[in-house]
Design brief:
The chain is α/β, with parallel strands linked by helices. It has two domains: 187 residues, FAD/NAD(P)-binding domain; 107 residues, FAD/NAD(P)-binding domain, CATH 3.50.50.60. Helices cover 25% and strands 26% of the residues. It is built from six helices and 15 strands. The strands form three sheets. Strands 1, 2, 3, 4, 5, 6 and 15 form a seven-stranded mixed sheet that branches. The chain has a five-stranded parallel sheet with strand order 7-14-8-9-10, covered by helices on one side. Strand 5 and strand 6 form a beta hairpin. Helix 1 runs parallel beside helix 2, helix 1 runs parallel beside helix 6 and helix 4 runs parallel beside helix 5. The longest helix has 30 residues. The C terminus is likely disordered.
Length: 321
């Protein structure tokens, strides 16, 4: 991928869950050029849900990741482009608006924020202290600093596995700490994780502390199956990919109105405090957390954004006469 998308998207959607995928479907069907920044099927709430039995139009039970895959397939068939990247910053004031990712810079005439509420309130002991001194949230950014060293990856999602596989190209050993017994990824990624010789998987382990002096020196963890009490492992770096229940808004850098609870504020069309910028799904915290409601949010925002874009284009033509 090039460092910059030179062609401006009509719309960039940040987040590919049910809200983002539905917005992409509606916007692409309206003949807009749509890009969706997404970190993987199992990085959001729906992708990690084992069973869905109450989604309208579906009979029986289905895995959340399967339902989400179908939604994305529909959006792609209408012309939306899904980009495996993570938003780390934004400039929403200008025209075009800019979204900065780990792998590229994306320009867009409008932006829809659909990042959900999987952010974390409770950090691992030592995580904040050693951020930038051995603790990282981006293997693509920092893997080269750990060439031939021991590192730990903490998580159980698509993103965590992809980052571990990337780190394995640089590090001597990658210790993969999965909080649960199972890693919620597709079979191909799981096979890659298990077959990579310098990745050691520690299932059912909880990392309790990241320790060191001036930089990371190791982790302390608890293996719930082994019943050996707290153990220690020396590592030079720790890459954290855990999920919680806090709206993910850190990449917005204070450009939008946020409630005291950390939720993005929107009007009845899901437009934020900035024209051309919309927010949908769990990040706006206005409803119970259900996939069907998030999908409804996506449809509302996409229709509103399409009207806003068409009106803006007309205004530009009139102004130029």
């Amino acid at each position: 991928m090039s460092d910059t998308y030179n062609n401006i998207f009509d719309m960039i959607i940040i987040g590919g869950g049910p809200a983002g995928a539905t917005a992409a479907m509606y916007a692409a069907r309206a003949d807009l050029k749509v890009g969706v920044l997404d970190k993987g099927l199992t990085t959001g709430a729906l992708g990690t849900t084992s069973k869905i039995a109450n989604y309208p139009g579906l009979e029986g039970e289905i895995r959340g990741a399967e339902l989400l895959q179908t939604m994305r397939k529909q959006a792609v068939e209408f012309g939306a482009e899904f980009i495996n990247d993570k938003a780390i910053g934004t400039d929403l004031m200008g025209d075009p608006k800019v979204v900065f990712g780990n792998l590229g810079v994306y320009n867009a005439r409008s932006v829809i924020i659909a990042t959900g509420s999987m952010g974390r309130n409770n950090l691992i002991k030592g995580e904040a202290e050693f951020l930038g001194r051995g603790v990282s949230y981006c293997a693509v950014c920092d893997a080269a600093f750990f060439k031939d060293k021991e590192v730990a990856v903490i998580g159980k999602s698509d993103e965590a596995v992809e980052e571990a596989l990337y780190l394995a190209r640089f590090a001597r050993t990658v210790h993969f700490f999965a909080p649960g017994k199972e890693v919620n990824v597709n079979e191909e990624e799981l096979a890659g994780l298990q077959s990579t010789k310098n990745i050691v998987v520690h299932p059912g382990t909880i990392v309790k502390e990241i320790f060191g002096v001036e930089k990371v020196a190791g982790v302390r963890f608890l293996d719930r199956e082994a019943d050996l009490g707290e153990e220690s492992l020396d590592v030079d770096g720790v890459f954290v990919y855990l999920q919680g229940g806090k709206p993910i808004t850190d990449f917005l850098q204070g450009q939008l109105e946020i409630s005291n609870e950390g939720c993005v504020q929107v009007n009845h069309e899901n437009q934020t405090s900035l024209p051309g910028v919309y927010a949908i799904g769990d990040v706006i915290c206005t409803h119970v957390k259900q996939a069907v409601i998030a999908a409804g949010d996506g449809a509302i925002a996409a229709i509103a954004a399409e009207k806003w874009l068409r009106g803006k284009s007309k205004a530009r033509v009139d102004w130029g006469k």
